[in-house]
Every structure is written in structure tokens, then in C-alpha cells.
Amino acid sequence: MPPALLITSLVHSIQVGSLYALMALGITLTMRVIRLPNFAHAEFVSAGAFAALVVSIFLSRSPVVILACATLSGAAVALLSHLLVFRPMSRRKLSTYAMLLVSFAVGLILRYILFVLSDSYQLFDKRIQIPMQILVRESFIVLTNFTLTIVPVSIACVMALALLLARTALGREMRALASNPELAHILGMRVERIRSLTWLLTGATAGLAGALWGLYTFVNPLLGWLAILPVFAAAILGGLSSFTGTILGAYLVAFCENTLMQALNHYTGLTFSFKAAIPFVIIILVLLLRPQGLTGFLRQNRNIER
Amino acid sequence: MKLRSLVFVLLALCLSPVLSVSAQENVTLGVVMPFTGALGSFGSDFVRGVELAVAQMNAELEAAGSATRFVTASADTEGTPDGAARAVQTVVQTTGANVIVGPLTTSEVLGAKQYADENGVVLVAPASSGPAGGIPDDNIFRVMYPPDIFSAKAYARIAVSRGYQNVAILNLDDPYGNGLADRFQIEFAAAGGGDTTRITYTPDPPDLSSEMARLSADVASLSESGETAVLCVCFLGDAQKALQLALVDPLLGTVDWIGNEAMTSAELLEDAGVAAFLQNANLVTVGAYSTETPLSSRFAESFAEHFDNPPGPFTNYAFDAANIAMLSILAAGNDGAAVKSMLPFISGHYIGTTVQGLLDENGDQAVAWYSIYQVNADGTDFESVGLYNGSADSLEISG
User: Fold this and answer.
1) Which chain B residues have a beta carbon less than 8 Å from that of A271?
2) Which tens digits make up the pLDDT trace of A247-258?
3) How many folded domains does chain A comprise?
4) Rounded to whole angstroms, how far apart are CA atoms B149 and B182?
5) Which of A209, B130, B237, B271 is the most buried (most CB within 10 A)?
6) What CA–CA distance (Å, rounded) separates B288 from B291?
7) What is the pLDDT along chain B (399 residues), one digit of tens a residue?
8) ipTM over cut 0.95
9) What is the pLDDT at residue A254?
10) Which residues are paired to A142 by β-bridges?
11) Left, alpha or beta for B122 (phi > 0: left; psi -120 to 50: alpha)?
12) Which range is least confidently modeled, A36-50, A259-273, B111-125, B282-296?
């Protein structure tokens, strides 16, 4: 494979992997704390992207304002979904499968609301109005202001979220609730408050990821849904419980979709149409061979280090 | 006796509206289009085009004292072959429609084909053009919009006339994209062209970074053996994603580009960077030639009056397809087999909003004129710079 192509694909892997990590962390968080494989997460991502688009068209072109509004919008949509649908449903003691279907339904409703709004206000396939600047353009590497926004912001948020969960009282409460909800309740933790904050955090990261993904591509109501499969593959690689595993999983999926796919195309002639199958293959392989994902591997390594 | 007469009169008065309604014969015209998914905006506009045709036809039928009225029944194809099959089945089973306007794309048409053929349902597709849909003696008629065997020739003629020795192709991996790219490769080779490479991408791609990186590598490799161009066969949303990546690529901006009709969109030029890129890349696109017929402006005005919005791209084709379908039903009766037999004759004698609907042996549009477009000097819109006559295989281009 030509070196330029290899380097370009690695840069794409890092860029896409950072975005996948940001989206996948929300899924892992919901799975651990709320115990829900939330498919509506895709629409929290789309909601953030649309908020960024609308703000950039009508209010401000400042990246900080745009990203902040997207974050808040994602958080608001997630919290509202929790308060209006997920909480009342969970009080009925529905099974995980039923809740999974509910999350599909919420996602569908949100998606079609976005479709209706896009149709009414001509917002299909629009770009977030932040001008792109090319900072480095060589045959082997291209860097734009988008690259230098997406990657550091994603990584910073992933790190901040990891720190929040590991080092703060809220993070401890979340982890306690995740490992034993009954005990957390008996110990007097404000379980509902923690759950609401979890939804807020999940939505905020999804909203931010949506805005960054929208910068990377274009905004349409299917933006989140089209990206959700590799994101779930990343979360499954992380065992749906480990944040470190999820982050590693996100970069691994992005690497497979970009660099590995590029190599397969170059050396075997496999067409890029198979790129969409890579997340499926990863999900099936992980579930077949290592259902705990990278979690066990990470724990083992930590023990060896100790 | 008086009482009995009074009761009869009252009964007659009460039943008269019912009788007049039951005397009216409602004929269902099915409409299957993508209302959701990436092509949802096209589908919604196409349905409005059909509704306008139906409203106008019903007004004429009423004025003529005819008892026949057309009603529409629509279903969403979701933009997929499976969805199209389900949509056709739903419309047929719930309303008994024998004639359906739609679906939109070739992959949807092929998805619905088996059910339509087996159940004697006639599909009148207004914008499907993929070569894979050109099948003789089936129940599918692709009216008004010419099949891509003509546009592929146009692309090949343009490429050769502009002196491109090699072409790197980026195409959608569906019957439309593959069909057009396959035909182009055949026509380009037959016209004396050099090497071609193909990058295909799945419909609705989340991003195209790998594909564009590969395209750039292909351009680098092909350029070593002669002048090279890029042929982009994409839907608008995908073209936007591709161009966003092409903008920053060190090589893709140094070669000329040829685009399919979806790229002849002023929406692409809303981004000044993209507009400048396409100007520098001397982008030429090929789109069905819009001749002005007496119906053209009348259609646009009626549409705007009905829906408070101007018609979207290609909506006139749905309007024409609905008219051809309704005229065929009126001539042959509401029966699939009879309509199948009559429709080519009606279509061949129908002058629509742009062109005569003459059909070939596959039931596809046989009159194929294409405009060649380029970005104008301001970079704000596309302007016609040439004409390609598909029937005579002749190209006139000034750009």
C-alpha cells in the first residue's frame, strides 16, 4: 500500500475513532448505570447535529457556541426521553427486551420528528456553517481546523468523562448504582437523581458527538442512525461495561473500517461496499469468541502490572 | 296514498346524494415513493406532482360529465428494494389498485418488480433510469426520463472529446450506480478511451473518507499514464460528503471532474469552497434536457398555486407519469393487462412537461436529449454549455 494512503487512512482512523469513542461512551454509560442498550442514542446524536446546524445558520458561527448548544440539546433530548418515556416504562418493571424495543420506538419517533422538521425548514444534507481551513496539505497528510477541533475535543471529553466516573463522588455513585442498584437504594443514594444525571451526561456527549460528526460529514436525520452500528460494535468490544475497553474498541473499529479496509482493497481488491459489513463482523466475532469483549483482557493486564 | 307518496318522495330525497355518489366510479391510482430515508424529500414532492395531475384530471372528468374519478393511495418505499416491494403489495392489497406510479429509483423498481409481474400490476416509474431496469415485456414502464445507456454514452463522448485518457470512477453501489458505471466503461473503451478504475460505496454512507483516499490514490496512479478525470456517480447527499473530502485532498482538485445529474444542483454551490473547487475542476454534468413544452410553465404555475411552493427537481416527471397512467386507464379500463397493452401507445402520443413519452421495446423512454452543464462564472448555479442527442449519438459542447 502506498505510504501516503497508509498515513491518510491512519489519520482517518484516529479522527473517526475519536468520534466513535465519544458516541460509544454514552451507550456504555447507559448500559452500565441504567442497564439499557439504548438504540435511541443514535437520535440524541442526530439531535445534537441538528442543533449545531440550526445555531450555525441562525445564531452564531462561533465553534464554542455551536458545540455548547449541541451538547445542551443532546442533554435536553435525552433527559426528556428519560422523564417522559424511559422512567415511566421502567417503573412498570418491563424486561430488558421490552425496554430495548421502547428505545427503538423513542429513536424512531425522534428520527421522524427530525425528518418533518428538515422537510419543513429545508434542512436536509446541510453543512454546519463553520468555515473549513486547510492547515497542512501534503501528499501524505492533510490537516484542517476540523481535524484539530474534532480529535482534541473528542479526546478531552472522553478523558473528562472517564475522570468524572473514576474520581468524583457522582462517578462513584454511578458505579455503585451500576454494580448493585438495590444496595445503592438501601444506602440512601438518590437513585433517581443519579439516573437523571446519567441521562444528561449521555445526551450531552451524544449531542457533542453529533455536532462533531456533522462537521466531519453532513447533517441529515439519519446521521446518528447510520453511525450507530460501528458505535455499538465499539461498545460491544468494550464488553458494554468498560469505559477503557469502549475507547479502545472505538479506535479498533475505526482502524478496521479505514486502514484495514484500505489494505484489503489494495491487496485483495475487496470493494469498499464491504466496509459497512465490518461492524457486523466485529459484533459477531466478539459475541462468538469473547462475549466479555476487551474487558477481561484489560483486567488481566492490570493484574500483571500490579 | 298521500302518505305513501310523501314517504317515497322523502326516501328519494334522502337517497339522491347516495345514489349520485354510488354512480361515481372511483379508480385508485397507487403511488409508491420514498417518503423517508435519504430520498424522502424527492418522494414527498413527487406525490404532490401526482396529486396535482389527479386533481386536474378529476376536474376535467367532472366538467365532461364523466362518472369516473381518480383517487390516490400511497405507501412509503423507505428508499429500499424490500420497502418498495412491501409498499406495492400494501397498496394493491388494501385498495385493489392495478396501476401504480413509482417507485423512484431503479433498485426500488427492481425490488417491486416480481410482485408487480406476478400480480399483473403495472408500475409507471417516472425517474428510474438504471440499465438493469431495461427488461422487455415486463409490467414496468419507465416513462419520460431516459435510461442511462444514453447518458453513459454522453459521459464517454464528453470524456473523449475533452481528451481524458483515463477516468477514475466513484459510484454508488446500487443498480443505478453500477449500471451507469458499467455502461460508461464499455462506451469509454469503445470510443478509444484508456484505463478506468472503480471505487464503489454503499448507499447512505456515514462517511466516505476511505473511498476518497483510495480515489485520490487511483488518480495519482492513472495520471502517470495520461490525462485523467474523475467521474462521480453519486446522489446529492453523498456528493456533498465526497466533495467535502475532495476539497482538502492534494490531488483531487488538480484533475477535471464529470458528474451525474444529481450533481447539477445549486445546493452544492451554496458552499463557496465547493463552488470554487468545481469551477477549477471544470465539472461537467449531464442531465435530461428540459425542453419547454406548452405544459411546462402551466405545470410549474399550477404546482406553486396548489402547494405554495415551486416544484422540486424531477417532480414534473411524476406529474407526467400520473397523466400517462390515468389516460391509459381511461382508454383501456382499470385492468392491469389492458393498461400494459395500451400504455406504450398512450405514452408515445403524450407530450408532457418536457418531452414526448415515446417508449422502446423495454418500455423505457426512447427520446433521450441531455443538457451538458457547467458551473457558471459566478459559481452560483449551473448553466447549459452543450447538448447530447442520445438517439443520434451526437454531442455539441462549448465548455
Assistant:
1) 173, 198-200
2) 889 999 999 999
3) 1
4) 10
5) A209
6) 9
7) 455 655 555 555 554 444 444 578 999 999 999 988 777 778 888 999 999 999 999 999 999 999 999 999 999 998 899 999 999 999 999 999 999 998 999 999 999 999 999 999 999 999 898 888 889 999 999 998 888 899 999 999 999 999 999 999 999 998 889 999 999 999 999 999 999 999 999 988 888 999 999 999 999 999 999 999 999 999 888 998 899 899 989 899 999 999 999 899 888 898 888 999 999 999 999 988 877 788 888 999 999 999 988 888 789 999 999 999 999 999 999 999 999 999 999 999 998 898 888 899 999 998 888 999 999 999 999 999 999 998 888 888 875
8) no
9) 94
10) A137
11) beta
12) B282-296
C-alpha cell at A71: 451538547
| CB distance A213 to A15 below 8 Å | no
DSSP B231-253: EEE--HHHHHHHHHHHHH-TTTT
Longest dimension (CA), chain B: 104
What residues make up the domain containing A263?
3-305
Residue position matching grid coordinates 497542512: A136
Q: In this structure, is the dihedral angle defined by the CA atoms of residues A103, A106, A112 and A117, taken in order, positive or negative?
A: negative
> Cα–Cα–Cα angle for A71, A72, A73, nearest 5°?
95
Task: Assess contact for A110 and A77: CB atoms under 8 A.
Answer: yes
The size of the A-B interface in CB pairs under 8 A is 101
- CATH number of the domain residue A265 falls in: 1.10.3470
Percentage of residues in chain A with pLDDT exceeding 70? 96
Whether A274 has a pLDDT exceeding 50, the answer reads yes
Alpha carbons within 13 angstroms on the beta-carbon side of residue B343 total: 39
A16: chain B residues, CB-CB within 8 Å: 207, 209
* B211 vs B214: CA distance, rounded Å: 5
B103: nearest Cα among B131, B132, B123: B123
CA A193-A198-A202 angle, 5° bins = 150
Task: Pull the grid cell for residue A292.
Answer: 466479555
CA-CA distance, A110 to A128, in Å (whole number)? Answer: 20
Residue B200 Ramachandran class (φ > 0 left, ψ -120 to 50 alpha, else beta): beta
Residues B231, B184: contact at Cβ < 8 Å?
yes
Closest CA to A228 of A50, A63, A104, A83: A104
Domains of chain B: 25-145+292-348 (3.40.50.2300), 148-282+369-397 (3.40.50.2300)
**Hey, CA dihedral for B196, B202, B203, B204, is it positive or negative?**
negative
3 state DSSP class of B381: coil
Secondary structure in 3-state letters for B69-124: EEEEEEEECCCCHHHHHHHHHHHHHHHCCCEEECCCCHHHHHHHHHHHHHCCCEEE
Q: How far is B345 from chain A (nearest CA, A)?
A: 38
- Whether A230 sits inside 8 A of B206 (CB atoms) is yes
CB contact under 8 A, B210 and A12: yes
Contact residues, chain A to chain B, C-beta under 8 Å = 2, 4-5, 8-9, 12, 15-16, 112, 115, 118-119, 124-125, 127, 131-132, 134, 137-139, 142, 144, 216-218, 220, 222-223, 226-227, 230, 257-258, 261-262, 265-266, 271-273, 275-276
**B:157-186 residues touching chain A, CB 8 A cutoff:** 173
Q: Give how far A94 is from chain B: nearest CA, Å.
A: 30
φ, ψ for residue B259, nearest 5 deg = -130, 160
Amino acid at A180: N
Range list of H helices, B224-353: 236-248, 272-280, 294-307, 315-332, 336-348
3-state secondary structure at position A73: helix
φ, ψ dihedrals at B256, nearest 5°: -80, 155
